[in-house]
Design a protein that fits this description.
eight-stranded parallel beta sheet; 17 helices; alpha/beta; TIM Barrel; 384 residues; homodimer
């Protein structure tokens, strides 16, 4: 059975509406995956996550590898049973976190040695072990182990990273031993379009179940992000799902859908929510702001999330102000609902032929917010 | 309309099953009220609270007075709208927190001057202002302003506290200006039975809507708690609800129901939950314990709470271990469900005539746990 079908292709942009079939049910694309770093979205129960509109969750191999360990999750029957999330799950390969969170001891063409960011203990990951670990965690979609580069990055390092990423992708393909899982390749190359093409061509030849564009949303800004995505997406097979990793702000997502991307994940709705930053159609608001002290209205009129249905901005501001957990929880629920409603609007407008106009207007209105991502990204290392 | 009806009186003990009618619906008694200190039970949404079986919530006047302030809550339409909890709410008078949390500057027969535990700013409370504040917060049941004594306490101080508590009760009665609220008197007197009788008689003469036994569960231990309750409860009018404040461990509650108590509140299920301590029919378990590392079973077999229905002990232990909010949230949901199931069993066995035997067996089995409360109580000041 084909694991991805495109149901509607937009006639004016490269956007498409499809269904991604997984071992734990279908996902309507374009889709956004909330990040459940350590087996859950912070503070959110699986039932609540579903209510926000989420159909698929991402979990971080790096974090789960360190705690509670692969053995524990495997012995309990895998990630779905462990996390209580019955829908589809995608695990990343750990590459991004190894290169951004840990103290690297040694990187060579075969493997990465690093010190755990928790207790400094030494860990080694390579293409084979990262794949086997993901095989054992049991997510529905797993990712190739790749080398992530920062931004900006010297060309020589970008070249080396692409070379390793391609070599490792081949090894991941060979190591993959769980037929219930789809394996996606990851295109690297920073904002260098020549390297992106080279990497995309090499990976496409390996025939992966899907293809990700990695190494973006690391500080390059909205325009470079969009330009690189617009260039790279069409290089990937049209009949396979395309996944833009770690993206992003609402305008980034809409622009990437225009370029033909189907899947997204990002910590912004959840991490920003925990920091009292709420997304709305009229732009983001800061819930700690004293202007909400006596505001009896919801975060966003008409929003069906539990925060907006039950609480005034004044109450939510109070919760943040007194350090009450419910503040971060409510803002997270609202932001995830906002993101999933956005994806719903994207799918709906693609289907009814209004996506080109709608998306242009949306990007125009929200593009400025995307500039905020740069500074947010800079604190990513601490907050992840 | 009568606000309290007794439907079944146990023939072998003083226990009774009744219904307390409030402006926000009926409460089946004996009932347990979870503590929503600052307008919510920590980490728990109103819908989740209801699912645990809660019918009534308690909120702390002292905390709400300091933040966000009475004006804010009043301007937003009162505590129910602010907290999103549509069921009955009881507010305490602030007395307990004033005497336990704040730095007291001056206490005299008329009023208490203290420094806020948040910013040290000076606050004055007296019987009249504590009542008017509660009138404005808008809970369904409000409490008289009383002087709480620690344990142990010299007789002269106990006497003074009872004298003030009685005088203030009269003033609260006169100041009370919200006819939609029931006003309860509070009996003080520590473990001195003569003072308890004196206080109970004086308050009974004032004809309150209900009567509380205060100043217990402050370190006196299970036996003294039960003895004082057994002595005091029958001194209070049989046709009014009796409320044992701040109690307690499961065996304390069951013993107090035997003595004729109808209402309880306590931070134990919630605070202990946040500290990874879970109540079960086989006694409490500590969820951080390494013995659960690979345990695929729920906290308690057959428990209908979201923690037990969805997560293994191994997953919950992991959440506590990595500092994930979901740990405290899940343990809180479990403990509240445990408490409300306990109250349900109490009501059921009173109705079917098996309460005497059931309660004796229960207390025998769980009494030892109540000894743990003493040390828990000692850290109350920090944790509240």
């Amino acid at each position: 059975m084909k694991h991805f079908t495109i149901e509607v292709s937009d006639s004016q942009t490269a956007a498409r509406c499809g269904i991604l079939y997984t071992g734990h049910g279908p996902v309507r694309t374009p889709a956004f995956m909330p990040v459940g770093t350590r087996g859950c979205v912070k503070g959110i129960l699986p039932g609540q996550l579903k209510q926000t509109g989420a159909e698929m969750m991402l979990a971080n191999t790096y974090h789960l590898l360190l705690r509670p360990g692969v053995e524990v999750i495997e012995s309990l029957g895998g990630l779905h049973r462990f996390s209580g999330w019955e829908g589809p799950i995608l695990t990343d390969s750990g590459g991004y976190q190894v290169f951004s969170l840990s103290s690297l001891n040694r990187v060579d063409d075969d493997r990465v040695e690093f010190a755990s960011h928790i207790d400094g203990s030494p860990v080694v990951l390579d293409a084979c072990s990262a794949t086997r670990i993901q095989n054992r965690l049991g997510a529905d979609i797993i990712m190739c182990f790749d080398e992530c580069t920062p931004y900006p990055c010297p060309l020589s390092r970008l070249e080396k990273a692409v070379e390793r990423t391609v070599r490792w992708a081949q090894l991941c393909r060979q190591s993959h031993q769980n037929p219930r899982q789809l394996l996606f390749g990851i295109v690297q190359g920073g904002t260098d379009l020549t390297l992106r093409r080279q990497c995309a061509q090499a990976l496409t030849a390996m025939d992966f179940d899907g293809y990700a564009i990695g190494g973006l949303s690391v500080g390059e800004g909205h325009d470079a992000l969009v330009e690189t995505t617009q260039f790279t997406a069409p290089l990937l097979p049209a009949d396979r799902p395309r996944y833009l990793m770690g993206v992003g702000m609402p305008a980034d997502i809409v622009a990437a859908v225009r370029a033909g991307v189907d899947l997204f994940d990002c910590v912004l709705p959840t991490r920003n929510g925990r920091n009292a930053f709420a997304f709305t159609d009229d732009g983001p608001i800061r819930l700690r702001n004293s202007q909400w002290t006596q505001d009896s209205g919801p975060i966003e009129e008409g929003c069906p999330c539990p925060a907006c249905r039950t609480f005034s901005k004044a109450a939510i501001r109070h919760f943040f102000n007194v350090g009450e957990m419910l503040g971060p929880i409510l803002a997270t629920l609202h932001n995830l609902t906002y993101y999933h409603r956005l994806m719903n609007t994207i799918r709906k407008t693609i289907r009814d032929g209004t996506f080109e106009v709608w998306s242009r207007t949306f990007i125009e209105k929200h593009k400025k917010e995307s500039q905020m991502e740069i500074s947010e990204t800079q604190e990513r290392k601490e907050c992840l």
